[in-house]
Amino acid sequence: MVEHLHLIIRAEVSKPLKEEKSAEDFLTNLIDTIGMKIMYGPVSRYCELKGNRGLTAFTIIETSHVALHIWDEVDPALLQLDVYTCGSLDLDIIFNHLQVFDPIKVDYKFLDRKNGFTVIH
């Protein structure tokens, strides 16, 4: 059954990734652990633009996408993670993977996009 689940995370972290390869490894490991299949990527780039300095990485998965953004010039660093899938999703696995960033504060929304962006608790 197609589910259309969308997890959006905003986290303040003390250990941001700063290398493209590290972001790609993080996404590959996360996607493998949540049982998804990579179709393209991961791809990442580091932006040096003052005020927007940090990493962006994404992967197209068989059931949609995973995107990661980390702004490291602020303290604490800001991390945004977006996981959208037409399959099932175990939030505990994702939140456990965030521990590598040493999160200070984590906010999230878990949405059912199949039924009008309903918030799932």
Would you tell me the structural class of the helices and strands? alpha+beta
Assembly status: single chain
Mean pLDDT score, rounded? 94
Strand content: over 45%
Secondary structure tally: strands: 7
Strand order of the largest sheet: 2-3-4-5-1-6-7
Q: Determine and state the CATH class.
A: Alpha Beta
**Major β-sheet annotation:** 7 strands, antiparallel
Question: Describe it for me?
Answer:
There is one protein chain. With 121 residues, the chain is α+β, with helices and mostly antiparallel strands. It has two helices and seven strands, in the order βαββββαββ. It has a single domain (5-119), classed as S-adenosylmethionine decarboxylase. It has helices spanning 20-33, 91-97; strands at 5-13, 38-47, 54-61, 64-71, 77-85, 103-112, 118-119. A seven-stranded antiparallel sheet has the order 2-3-4-5-1-6-7, with helices on one face. The longest helix is centred in the N-terminal third of the chain and has 14 residues, at 20-33.
